């Protein structure tokens, strides 16, 4: 079993046209189901003038209205549910988004959902090199957001022992001890937690090449290639990008294979579109836009044409070099709601992270602070240093701040006022709340607008 290339070879390598036929079949069945069994969707589709019989091709999905988070919140708590609560075929587990900007979005999972969820995550762990008998340290958060549970179920499904470490980076010494003491072969966490733990390990003189660690899966926040290289340097691993959303029981939606040129999106479970976020119209294959997701085989919760606000690209090869046939999405560039307009230019936290990581002095975190003075935008950037001793030389600090400001300007067009701050002094996002850049962006202009009202 451990020598085979795929966890579920037949579906992972199903020809593209057969996958599309399966998608259409499941899309039609799902629209039929929600229209007749869910009052929220029936009302939504009646208002849009669309019937299940209108879906005759995959392109007909555009006849369905988008799901916006605010409308989903309006269905809280049970409006999106497809299954009864509990019982033999009912929902046995509920998760929810963090609710940082309003009511949480709940997702109800039946045993069928949990089995499918485990399969999808096992595909991803297998795809990145883990095998039965390995040990996997899960450092995503366990709780209402789904980060920890997906890979936990997937690891167990494929016969991998899972350590439910959780996402508290302050226990970095335990992270490190367990990697060595239990022979951990793979791990998952957010990139920012990885940078924090890796930096701490470097300070302690830890060499992970003496451990069994070989694979790291990172997600839940945008991270540039420079961060990948830094994580691989810290841990001596191959780092893989993965993506998932709590609303769809993510992780288990997309992950990189060994080619690492995009994340495979499991087409038997999800239909992903890419649209112009301003017009809602589809963009060309491979062009940048906002991802829109439809859950094709859901059993407990209905999510059709849900706008993610995540910016990426989608393309579909006949067959990847890895042998899989499922479409790919590019690394998440940012989110439409995380794009920060500064002095007429759009700035993404991931752009700033890429610029800062050119400097070996950069620590594990940074924070963008945007304000308005005398009617003009101000752009301040707090950057943690790797070692606090670096702050002792005033001339060194002055020069490094200037160099960092120039580097950020080169990628954003805006020159920030850089402030170097001690290591571990800035707030850090972990788990569900790291879906947005809220821990890295402080836009005080919004506060001013509220106060002026």
Low-confidence stretches: 432-438, 449-453
Mean pLDDT score: 92
Number of strands: 21
Which class do the helix and strand fractions yield? alpha/beta
- What portion of the residues fall into strands of 2 or more residues? 15-25%
End-to-end Cα distance: 65 Å
The total count of helices amounts to 12
Shape by Cα distribution: globular
The major β-sheet equals:
9 strands, mixed
- Helix % is 25-40%
Placed side by side, the strands forming the largest sheet appear as 4-3-5-6-7-8-9-14-13
Question: What secondary-structure arrangement, pairings included, does this model have?
Answer:
Layout lengths: L8 H4 L3 H22 L1 H10 L20 H6 L16 E6 L9 E5 H17 L7 E4 L8 H11 L3 E3 L8 H10 L4 E4 L1 H13 L11 E4 L6 H11 L2 E6 L10 E3 L6 E3 L4 E6 L13 E7 L10 E7 L1 E2 L12 E2 L4 E2 L4 E3 L2 E3 L1 H8 L5 E12 L2 E10 L8 H19 L4 E5 L19 E3 H9 L1
Parallel strand pairs: 3-4, 3-5, 5-6, 6-7, 18-21, 19-20
Antiparallel strand pairs: 1-2, 7-8, 8-9, 9-14, 10-11, 11-12, 12-15, 13-14, 16-17, 18-19
Helix pairs in contact: 2-3, 5-6, 7-8, 8-9, 10-11
Description:
The chain is globular. The strands form 5 sheets. The protein has a 9-stranded mixed beta sheet, sandwiched between helices. A 4-stranded antiparallel beta sheet has the order 10-11-12-15, with no helix packed on it. Strands 20-19-18-21 form a 4-stranded mixed beta sheet. The protein has helices at residues 9-12, 16-37, 39-48, 69-74, 111-127, 147-157, 172-181, 191-203, 225-235, 349-356, 394-412, 444-452, and strands at residues 91-96, 106-110, 135-138, 161-163, 186-189, 215-218, 238-243, 254-256, 263-265, 270-275, 289-295, 306-312, 314-315, 328-329, 334-335, 340-342, 345-347, 362-373, 376-385, 417-421, 441-443. Mean pLDDT is 92; it is low at 432-438 and 449-453. Helix content is 31%, strand content 22%. Helix 5 (111-127) packs across helix 6 (147-157), helix 8 (191-203) packs parallel to helix 9 and helix 10 (349-356) packs across helix 11. The chain is an alpha/beta fold and 453 residues long. Strand 18 (362-373) and strand 19 (376-385) form a beta hairpin.
């Amino acid at each position: 079993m451990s020598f085979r290339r795929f966890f579920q070879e037949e579906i992972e390598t199903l020809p593209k046209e057969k996958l599309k036929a399966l998608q259409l079949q499941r899309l039609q069945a799902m629209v039929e189901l929600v229209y007749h069994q869910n009052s929220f969707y029936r009302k939504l589709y009646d208002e849009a003038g669309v019937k299940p019989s209108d879906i005759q091709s995959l392109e007909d999905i555009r006849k369905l209205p988008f799901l916006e988070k605010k409308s989903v919140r309006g269905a809280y708590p049970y409006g999106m549910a497809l299954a009864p609560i509990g019982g033999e075929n009912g929902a046995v587990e509920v998760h929810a988004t963090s609710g940082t900007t309003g009511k949480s979005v709940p997702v109800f999972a039946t045993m069928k959902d949990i089995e499918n969820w485990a399969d999808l995550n096992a595909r991803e762990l297998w795809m990145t090199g883990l095998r039965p008998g390995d040990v996997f340290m899960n450092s995503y958060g366990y709780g209402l957001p789904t980060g920890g549970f997906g890979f936990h179920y997937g690891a167990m499904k494929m016969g991998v022992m899972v350590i439910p470490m959780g996402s508290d980076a302050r226990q970095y010494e335990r992270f490190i001890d367990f990697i060595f003491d239990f022979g951990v072969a793979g791990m998952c966490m957010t990139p920012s937690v990885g940078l924090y733990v890796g930096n701490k390990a470097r300070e302690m003189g830890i060499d992970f090449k003496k451990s069994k660690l070989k694979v790291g899966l990172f997600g839940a926040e945008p991270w540039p290639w420079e961060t990948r290289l830094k994580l691989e340097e810290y841990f001596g691993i191959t780092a893989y990008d993965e993506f998932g959303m709590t609303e769809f029981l993510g992780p288990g939606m997309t992950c990189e294979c060994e080619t690492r040129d995009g994340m495979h999106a499991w087409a038997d479970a999800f239909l992903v579109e890419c649209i112009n976020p301003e017009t809602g119209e589809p963009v060309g294959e491979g062009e940048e836009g906002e991802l829109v997701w439809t859950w094709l085989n859901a059993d407990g919760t209905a999510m059709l044409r849900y706008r993610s606000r995540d910016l990426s690209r989608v393309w579909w090869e006949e067959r990847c070099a890895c042998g899989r046939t499922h479409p790919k999405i590019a690394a998440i560039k940012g989110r439409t709601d995380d794009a920060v307009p500064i002095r007429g230019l759009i700035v993404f936290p991931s752009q700033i992270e890429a610029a800062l990581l050119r400097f070996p002095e950069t620590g594990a975190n940074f924070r963008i602070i945007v304000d308005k003075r005398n009617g003009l935008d101000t752009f301040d950037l707090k950057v943690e240093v790797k070692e606090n001793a670096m702050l002792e030389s005033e001339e060194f600090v002055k020069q490094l701040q200037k160099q960092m400001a120039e580097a950020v300007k080169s990628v954003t067009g805006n020159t920030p006022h850089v402030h170097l701050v001690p290591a571990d002094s800035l707030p850090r996002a972990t788990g569900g709340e790291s879906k947005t850049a809220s821990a890295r962006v402080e836009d005080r202009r919004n506060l001013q607008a509220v106060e002026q009202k």
